[in-house]
Specification:
By secondary structure, the chain is an alpha/beta fold. The chain has a single domain (20-205, 276-357), classed as Rossmann fold, CATH 3.40.50.1820. The chain has 11 helices and 16 strands. It has helices at residues 30-35, 93-97, 99-110, 146-161, 178-189, 250-257, 263-270, 272-278, 300-312, 330-347, 354-357, and strands at 40-44, 54-56, 61-63, 65-69, 81-85, 117-121, 140-141, 144-145, 171-176, 196-200, 208-210, 225-227, 236-240, 245-248, 287-293, 318-323. Strands 1-4-6-5-9-10-15-16 form an 8-stranded mixed sheet, sandwiched between helices. Strands 2-3 form a two-stranded antiparallel ribbon. Helix 3 (99-110) runs parallel beside helix 10 (330-347). The protein is globular and about 55 Å long.
Length: 361
Amino acid sequence: MREWRGPIAAAVLLIGAVPAGAQYRALVNIDWVNHRLAGHVDDYSHNHGADRRLDSPVLGRKRDLYVYTPPGYDPRRQYPLILWLHMAYVDEHAFIGGHPLQQLDAMILRGEIPPVVVACPDGTYEGENHIRSTHSLFINGKGGRFEDHLVGEVMPFVMSHYSIRPEAKAHGVLGLSGGGFGGMSIALRRRDLFGAVATLASPVNVRYDDIRPGGPREDFHPSTYRWKAAYDPEEVYAVFSFGLRQTRARKYIDPVLGSGPEVSDILQYLNPADLLFTTDLQPGEMALFCHFGGRDNWNFDAQAMSFAWLAASKGVHVELATAPLATHSLSYFNRHQAEAYRFLGRHLLPPTGPWMLALRP
């Protein structure tokens, strides 16, 4: 057991802690971003002088969205789609404010991955670029029906305004930390919409526990693994600064799901590891990828490994990748998104080619 590493409790769905500096707020110049891309980011936000947000009857308010189109985007073709779901302490600004988007753009130019459209919605309750905004986990919770917004408003908007392949196996999710919890949970339950999921340092088994003294803080081992039976709002989920700073479950769970006895059942229903069984995922039905830091402060590495082990018991393959020395930090997320994009590029249906255009009436 690594004593300094935080126990993420069995049910942490949530959000990993990221330094406050991770929030880009309104400091990102969209013209500057697009000047450095061969592709283009379309702005449906109120972050750059004008209010272009999507109306959301589901959430009862306007919502921000960015959509990236690849180099050479041609509406006569149809492209795969990736939903990019951010972590906590940031919002949609993180998608355009960092180096990974330029990496994606360059990989497409070099032919490392096929051209793809990427949509990044705002997953915060407040929607106003506050550093400490409450993360929705992209699920239906106390602050709004964010899952319904994602699949019932964001997806239809992007597919009606851009040329996207309609097949589920052309649609993927890239989720970071808490965004990976919601993304993996939704995709497993909505295999009619999605064919591939990639997560970075995400709680994909929020009911992770261990029979050894450290419980959910322990490293994963098949012989000592067990399911966590109940949600404890006082459980320490993560430890930072060599134990001087600790985060308890209630900080992230209570705003989204509340604190009543029903929370345990809700977490079990949403938990990606449980969904492997409750949705009866079959081998080859979905492409799954989990990347993690070997020193993750939330013990998300143990969750990812237990998720892959549980999936293997059903004959389902989960591709794992790790940065052995990485902690749950902004630098980790910036450095490793390219690996997730490569995975999705291999498993999503490619854009339709010119030969397909000739077959159309």
